[in-house]
Amino acid sequence: MVELRRYWTMFRLNLSQSKWEKSEIAAAKQLLFSIKPTSWGKADEQEMQHRLWILCRVKEPAIRSQACLNLRCYISHAAKHTVDSLVTKHHTGDTYTLAQDLYSCVLNDEGKLLQFLLEDDKQRLKFVVDERQRLLVINDQGMQAVSPPFSFKVLATFEPHRSQRLSLWNWTSRLVTQEPEVNLILGEYGFHRQSLWQFLSKIEPLQLRSMEQQFSRFSTKKIEYHGQLLTILRQVHQQYRRQRLKSKSQELKKNNNNHLWEMMLVQVQQQAIPITSTQALKDELIQIRKFIDHHRRNLYQSPSWERSLIEAVHGS
Q1: Dist CA 80 CA 106 (whole Å)
Q2: Over 70: is that where the pLDDT of 164 sits?
Q3: What are the residues whose beta carbons fall under 8 Å from the beta carbon of 140, sequence distance 6 or more?
Q4: What average pLDDT does this structure show over 228-250?
Q5: According to a count of CB atoms within 10 Å of the terminal CB, is the N or C end of the chain lower?
């Protein structure tokens, strides 16, 4: 049975109390109750969302903005549930702060009616945006560009006709877990999708040096030291890949992670770097990953045009 309240209540930030809470959105409730509430009650979740999605495409701006608001409310419930699941999965001593940080990425919808414009696309809600990817909306002052909340990103990519199994709830959950800033925040708390080795093997030493020189307080000696470690890691990575292609040993394939660290430790010690164990080596490299995580999160939070410029110069 459809939980209608999910379509007119939204999890959003209460500025006066600085916390996220569920609140009723009058404009969202108004549309549902203006179209025979009993008919909504008989619909299943998929049919309900399909009806609202169709209403999002009608010519009347007021109706489509209200229908969109209903779906935005629903998305907030799905997004919060996904964040709470992530926090439970990545258990940390400060779960409250982690949850609040993650909420800020995906529960950033204020619940206001936004009279958006659509381009012609039968599969998706293709919202009209400006050159900085801001949503173009109509209000009393005419046309205005606003930063789209996460819910619009979900709606702009959701295709209800593509798969019956891919519900709006599941699609929202997928986008939450793929959201760059969500993963950057998890990274700052020490949770990564990629292993330390996989992560650093994709970083160019010159790219790291450029980032550290401009955005860190590391000494010149420390920056050179980090570059030296990263260069060795990438050399060992290439050496291991060649070794694995040639080797028929299943043991090498099973214990590849430990083997990589042991190979790197040998190379490090041959260059007279004072590291005596693989754990000490990992601890040094973790500091590099923490810096990159912090830098990328700051980069992600900068304006899109500025972010594109920085990425072009320093890499993503």
Answers
A1: 8
A2: no
A3: none
A4: 83
A5: N
CB atoms within 10 A of CB 271: 10
115, containing H or E segment: strand 115-116
User: Look-up: residue for tokens 């992560």?
Assistant: 199
**Rounded to two decimals, what is the model's pTM?**
0.72
In the numeric block, which tokens belong to residue 81?
A: 């549930």
Determine how β-strand 9-14 pairs with β-strand 19-24: antiparallel
Name, in order, each residue with C-beta under 8 angstroms of 227's C-beta and a sequence gap of 6 or more.
Answer: 205, 208, 209
The label of the residue with tokens 């936004």 reads 114
Residue 15 zone, left/alpha/beta (φ > 0; ψ -120 to 50; rest): alpha
Q: What pLDDT is recorded for position 150? A: 96
Neighbour-count burial for 248-269, b at 16+ CB within 10 Å, e otherwise: eeeeeeeeeeebbbebbbebbe
Tokens, residue 310: 């920085």
Kindly tell me if the per-residue pLDDT of 43 is higher than 90. no
pLDDT digits (tens, 9 = 90+) for 49-70: 988 999 999 999 889 999 999 9
What does the mean pLDDT of the chain come to? 86
Identify whether the C-beta of residue 87 lies closer than 8 Å to the C-beta of residue 98.
yes
- Choose between 154 and 16: higher pLDDT: 154
